[in-house]
Structure formats: structure tokens, C-alpha cells
Structure prediction request, 133 residues.
Amino acid sequence: MREDGPKREITATVVKVLVHQRDDRGMSLEPFASRCVREGEVHELVTTDHDDTTPGARIDRVGFLGFAEIGCAGVIDRGDEVWIGGVRVGTVLGFDGCHFPNHYNILIQVPQPRTGPDLGLKPELDVRFTQSD
Prediction:
């Protein structure tokens, strides 16, 4: 049974760049494949080479990209493509809620964890979450 239909693209803007990596972060994958986001919320963008989507999966190897302010309300789903400054960064693996309700860590699956400077991030760059085909 198909659950997902078409959806709007979520836009956001980088508001702070992060520069560090960890191999022992201990994040825990939320059991949700999607999260609703509201205009004006700020969420953290985190890269990882983990690919396990089992609820509670431990996420240790991470690179921190930064924080982004959501520009329009909508739904971010596991598997959505993440674009920053017009460059495809990776796909949404899921969410870690260790800082919620302040913000979610949006986990982005990549071949190798990367940081904000690795990708040349700067405040005010555009971020897009697009539905994968």
C-alpha cells in the first residue's frame, strides 16, 4: 500500500555553521520516518555514514554542518534529498530528538561525515529538502 503522495519542497536558510566531527556521538534514531516542521523553527543538520533505519539505532560517526531556519512549513521524510547552496549533500536518514523540543538533529546520510567548512557553508545559504523520486 502506497502512503506518500506529492508534497511541497521545504526551504530553509543556514543561520550558523558548525565545524566539528565525532566518532562517539551516541545519537539515537527516532522511530519516525517523517517530521513536520514549522516556518521559523531552527533545526540542526548532521551528516553521517550510518545507514541503519531501525528505531533506536545508535548514530556515532557524525559531522556537524550547522543550523538552518525553516522558511516554509511542511513535512521532511526519510529519503528526502538535501541540497545546500544548490549542491546535493545527501539524503535524510532520520531524526535524533536529544535536544527536542529546542530542535531536532536532522541526520543526513552521506558516504563520509562532513562538516560545514568541508562543504564551504556560510550563513544565508539556501537549504532545500526535496522529495526523492
